[in-house]
Specification:
The protein has helices spanning 22-33, 45-54, 62-65, 77-87, 105-115, 158-171, 185-206, 221-227, 234-243, 245-267, 271-288, and strands at 11-18, 38-41, 58-59, 68-73, 96-99, 121-127, 148-152, 179-182. It has 291 residues and is of the alpha/beta class.
Length: 291
């Protein structure tokens, strides 16, 4: 742990971004486009040097950390935790630290403990935006425009929490999020297993059909929609899936059961049953979309 104690002041509006991949790079670009000072740290030096040309003000060194009002942890789950544990004593009193990790229980439980005894606050966050591509080269200032931001507020009094969230919204204003949704870490991980993680597993498994190599000239929107997230960062998604293994396993069990029902009806050439299954799925889709 660093010996330096946390400072008591920061430069208002100054931001620090830890990790310049797709998410971190997009935060950095959004802050810079709004005229904010943004300092960054990245494991690969060449990416940081590229970002310094037109995006970041400078490197997020130990002596700069304490001058930031907002710090964004945009790495993999364990790397975000490791950085925060190592630099906790350097963060300014009154600063806010958020993350962008796609799971929340392991992040919030650990980072909340790291924050104990310090004057800064950790707020778990998950921006609901992205692409099938990764890396700083694919980041953009408008990545989060209109997108939802899921926020896991820390345990504190209602008035104190309200003030914190309003301040966080102001700090994140350059990102132009469309909404802020409050949730617990448990609720987040339960829902995200369905809305994001299951979709990635299904898409990734779908392209393993031998027919995938024969699809050219036979595919259109359905194929593109279902395979968009088959291309993924295997290292990152392995960590995310295993950090939420219980919820993801439940969702996989549910879809396997449903697929088996379709297969049985098709194998048995049971038209009424197949029609019933298809109509049920159509009806549920319309209900959940409010149509």
């Amino acid at each position: 742990m660093p010996e330096q104690s946390s400072t008591t002041s920061f430069v208002p509006g100054r931001c620090g971004v830890v990790g310049l991949g797709l998410m971190g790079g997009s935060f950095a670009r959004a802050f810079r486009a709004a005229g904010r000072e943004v300092f960054a740290w990245n494991r690969t030096r060449s990416t940081l040097e590229l970002a310094e040309i037109e995006t970041v003000t400078g490197e997020l060194t130990d002596d700069v950390i304490g001058t930031c009002e907002l710090i964004v942890l945009a790495g993999y789950p364990q790397s975000a935790i490791d950085w925060l544990r190592e630099k906790a004593d350097l963060i300014a009193d009154g600063a806010i630290v958020i993350d962008t990790v796609g799971v929340k229980r392991v992040i919030c439980e650990t980072c909340d403990k790291i924050s104990e005894g310090h004057g800064w606050t950790f707020v778990g966050c998950h921006p609901m935006a992205g692409t099938q591509y990764s890396g700083f080269a694919h980041s953009r200032a408008t990545m989060f425009k209109g997108a939802p931001m899921v926020v896991i507020p820390p345990k504190m009094g209602d008035l104190e929490r309200a003030d914190l969230l309003e301040r966080l919204k102001e700090l994140l204003a350059p990102c132009q999020f469309g909404s802020f949704t409050l949730a617990t870490a448990g609720v987040h991980d339960h829902v995200i297993a369905f809305t994001s993680q299951l979709a990635h597993v299904v898409s990734n498994a779908y392209v393993k059909s031998p027919t995938a190599r024969e699809h050219h000239g036979f595919s259109a929107g359905s194929y593109r929609d279902l395979t968009r997230v088959a291309q993924l960062n295997a290292t990152m998604w392995t960590e995310l899936f295993l950090d939420n293994a219980d919820n993801l396993s439940d969702e996989l069990g549910s879809i396997i059961d449903s697929l088996q029902q379709y297969k049985d009806a098709i194998d048995e050439k049971d038209a009424p049953r197949l029609k019933e299954l298809l109509a049920e799925g159509d009806r549920i889709k319309r209900e959940v979309e409010g149509r």
